[in-house]
Amino acid sequence: MSAGPADPRAAGPGTSTRSVTRQQYPAPVRVAVASVTRCVAVTGGMVLRGRLRMPRAWVGTWFHFADGTSAPVYRETIAVRAPTEDPCVLVVGFRLRWARGRGHDVFRWTSIVNTPLFVGFPGFVAKWWLAADEFGRYRGVYQWDGAQQAERYARALWRVLSLVSVRGSIRYHVLAGSWRDDVVHGAPDPSGGSDDPSWWRITGADLGARPVPRRVQAPGR
């Protein structure tokens, strides 16, 4: 089977968008440590096989959210993988405990070292890295293959983020049956999860004079 990065539209016509986020809590420490350790090992193999991409088509795009905040994409990471069968969008948010002023710049420059902590999780497809918004909240907007796998990742990630995040600031939201570009371009919003939908719901995107990309094109292999 041929593989390409990002959003290969393999889901059937019956795919529907729905919110699946329930009560949120971190994974048990042992489970999180084991999951992250496996992820790092898998990431090493992906790097050796050249299965990671960092395109710039979306870098600089400003996303606007329903809570009135906005933030730009400063990096994108994509896995070269088989077509996605069960698409979902995962949005993770958190606020760093000690970042102030230039500290946010340092975090953006050095955050690439966190890549091995997520790309090797089962189901990872792509991630937009968003800078801090007006309230200092960072977001990651992921494409994932499988809503349950996305939630398992988010719960394991919680344990890592808790080491550097403001207490109570970590949250996530899963939208099953969703593609990232559809969410950005105004697909119907199935709000109604257990958490406040305003922080994760994208209401618009702009690139200034440049058009917002519809999707990342998969290079041939």
Short note summarizing the structure:
The chain is α+β, with helices and mostly antiparallel strands.
Name the descriptors.
10 strands; alpha+beta; globular
Structure description:
- Helix content is 22%, strand content 26%.
- The chain contains 4 helices and 10 strands.
- Strand 4 (62-65) and strand 5 (70-81) form a beta hairpin.
- The radius of gyration is 16 Å and the shape is globular.
How is the secondary structure organized here?
Elements: E1 4-5, E2 18-19, H1 29-48, E3 52-53, E4 62-65, E5 70-81, E6 87-95, H2 102-110, E7 124-130, E8 137-145, H3 147-161, E9 171-176, H4 180-184, E10 202-206
Antiparallel strand pairs: 1-5, 2-9, 3-5, 4-5, 4-10, 5-7, 6-8, 6-9, 7-8
| Radius of gyration computed on alpha carbons | 16 Å
Q: What class do helices, strands and sheet pairing give?
A: alpha+beta
- In total, the number of strands is 10
How far apart the termini lie comes to 11 Å
Task: Write the H/E string, N to C.
Answer: EEHEEEEHEEHEHE
Report low-confidence residues grouped into runs of 5 or more. 1-15, 190-195, 215-221
> How much helix, percentage-wise, in residues?
10-25%
The major β-sheet equals:
10 strands, antiparallel
| Oligomeric state, counting identical vs distinct chains | single chain
Nearest-integer average pLDDT? 82
